[in-house]
Design goal:
Length: 346
């Protein structure tokens, strides 16, 4: 393995079966088949051009300290973060990926205006260790989601329109299962008015079909990264990620996300249903103002009571938003409480 049609040669004669179709294998897929023959994943192989001395292991050590686990040389060998070849220790690709030392280890996040990619409202690119990237990407999503206000008994609670636990699971899924062997491709996270879309390069590994993945079957592309994430509690059990994402959305009363394999990419799309009663989160883009600012821009004399009625929330919640926007410098009160007006600075 890999086997190929002799008349077409090894470069073009390798085909793989995906579902009911035959597909010509790319060079990356051929290399993947060779690794399968050796029972190795890309992240288990040594990074010959790197040395342990030049690496800052701080982020990885900190991640293990947070869960109360040691990370010594023996542990790193056991997790295959280090390999000894000819009497010398080398970091594996897995360790290099976890520390963010390759250019393709990146999450690019964008907030678009409307439902397509025509106009950017916000854009961030996160590099560095994977744990930091996950936290930053989650923060980016939170900044651009709406909050739903609910009264439960005597308590008022605010929850994000999409369950954050489901989004976190999808981000971890993208980081753990994506293809790192092909430089120049990264994870892309797009937020639209109607959806949150997470796309990871590599498609499904080892001939796994979408139907099989949705039924809970799992194939590990990155064994080292998966072991580390399981050790740190990011993963509970193999193959449960997609089922958990679906269950979390269903429990929250949201539509199930859409899962798709398009070409050599895997795509998870969460659906948004923007309601006028939803309170904007900490949306920072001046081109996409929170509803309360839009109302004040249209009628600067609006009272807290009038704003509360239009937004479908309490006057107290309005006062909190006004105070926060004033603190952020996005809103200014001109004149007294009675007879004055608001000035929107966006």
């Amino acid at each position: 393995m890999p086997y190929y049609l002799k008349r077409q040669g090894r470069e073009k004669g390798v085909f793989v079966r995906l579902g009911a179709t035959n597909r010509q294998a790319s060079q990356e897929m051929i290399h993947e088949l060779e690794r399968q023959r050796l029972h190795q994943s890309f992240d288990e192989q040594p990074a010959w051009d790197s040395t342990l001395e030049q690496l800052d292991l701080g982020p990885l050590q900190q991640a293990f300290r947070q869960v109360g686990k040691p990370l010594d040389r023996q542990k790193m060998h056991g997790l295959k973060l280090i390999k000894t070849e000819q009497g010398r220790e080398y970091p594996t690709h897995g360790l290099m990926i976890l520390l963010g030392r390759y250019e393709q280890v990146e999450i690019k996040c964008s907030r678009f205006k409307g439902t397509d990619m025509t106009v950017f409202l916000d854009k961030k690119e996160y590099t560095g260790d994977l744990f930091g990237q996950l936290a930053q990407a989650e923060g980016f999503i939170k900044n651009h989601l709406h909050l739903k206000a609910e009264i439960l008994g005597l308590q008022r609670t605010e929850t994000y329109e999409i369950p954050i636990a489901a989004i976190r699971e999808a981000l971890v899924n993208a980081v753990v299962h994506r293809d790192y062997s092909n430089a120049g491709r990264d994870i892309k996270l797009g937020i639209y008015d109607d959806a949150v879309n997470i796309v990871s390069p590599g498609g499904l590994p080892n001939g796994l079909t979408l139907d099989e993945a949705l039924q809970g079957r799992s194939e590990l592309r990155n064994k080292v990264i998966a072991r580390v994430f399981k050790e740190l509690g990011y993963i509970e059990q193999w193959g449960s990620g997609i089922a958990r994402i679906r269950a979390l959305c269903t429990q929250a009363g949201n539509p199930e996300p859409t899962f798709a394999e398009t070409g050599d990419f895997f795509d998870i799309e969460f659906h948004r249903s923007v309601s006028p009663k939803q309170v904007s989160g900490s949306e920072k883009s001046s081109e996409n103002m929170p509803p309360i600012l839009e109302l004040l821009a249209a009628n600067p004399q609006s009272s807290a009571k009038a704003l509360a009625e239009k937004l479908g929330i309490t006057a107290r919640a309005v006062e909190k938003q006004l105070a926060r926007l004033k603190q952020q410098g996005r809103l200014e009160r001109i004149g007294p409480a009675k007879g004055g007006h608001w000035k929107v600075k966006d």
